[in-house]
Write a structure and sequence with these properties.
By secondary structure, the chain is mainly α. The protein folds into 2 domains: about 45 residues, no CATH class; about 90 residues, Helicase, Ruva Protein, domain 3 (Orthogonal Bundle). Helices cover about 60% and strands about 0% of the residues. Helix 4 crosses helix 5.
Length: about 180
């Protein structure tokens, strides 16, 4: 999406699962590193490739491992409530964002080699799934940091859990049903 071409209609934006905003690097030392890497590549592409190959292979293995375990990543009803409360509090239309946040949180969890999502996973996923879906007026930024999203999740969890009995997890519910049968 090129800002010079104008904004897309909201119903089209919603079709993009995740989005990122790219900005230029402002820190001089980071810019120097980019220049040095570029010059090293131009000087000897094969040596540059060999230098970075172990790092790329490590990330490739991590991605392959995450792909095999993503379906085994667990989430609780509380996580679904957190996601739904977050999107509702930000006036996000539709339900696609909720599903995208859950899927991205599970993918991030699997990438890190864990089996249960956390509020941090939800916040990181929401940072990618929500900016282009949040309604904004002219002159308003839509940037929300993961920290701000995590704070909002914690606030919403605190307000939604007051006076509401927590539902047992599926495994707990099965164990209770087994006890009742005995």
């Amino acid at each position: 999406m090129n800002p010079e071409e104008g904004d897309l209609r909201p119903q089209l934006l919603d079709r993009f699962a995740l989005s990122v905003d790219i900005t230029g690097i402002r820190e001089a030392r980071d810019r120097v590193t980019i220049i040095e890497h570029n010059l090293a590549f131009e000087s000897d592409p094969e040596a540059f490739r060999k230098l970075w190959l172990p790092h790329e292979e490590k990330i490739s293995r991590q991605i392959a491992s995450a792909r095999t375990m993503v379906d085994k990543v667990n989430y609780a009803r509380r996580d679904l409530l957190s996601i739904a409360a977050l999107t509702a509090s930000l006036n996000v239309d539709g339900h696609r964002a909720d599903l995208v946040i859950l899927k991205a949180a599970r993918a991030h969890t699997a990438f890190e080699g864990r089996t249960a999502i956390t509020d941090r996973d939800i916040a990181l996923a929401a940072e990618l799934a929500l900016p282009h879906r949040i309604k904004r007026g002219p002159f308003h930024q839509t940037e929300i940091s993961p920290e701000q999203l995590q704070e909002r999740i914690e606030q919403l969890q605190g307000s939604s859990s007051e006076g509401e009995p927590s539902e047992p997890e599926p495994k707990e519910a099965e164990a209770e049903a087994q006890k009742k049968k005995s």
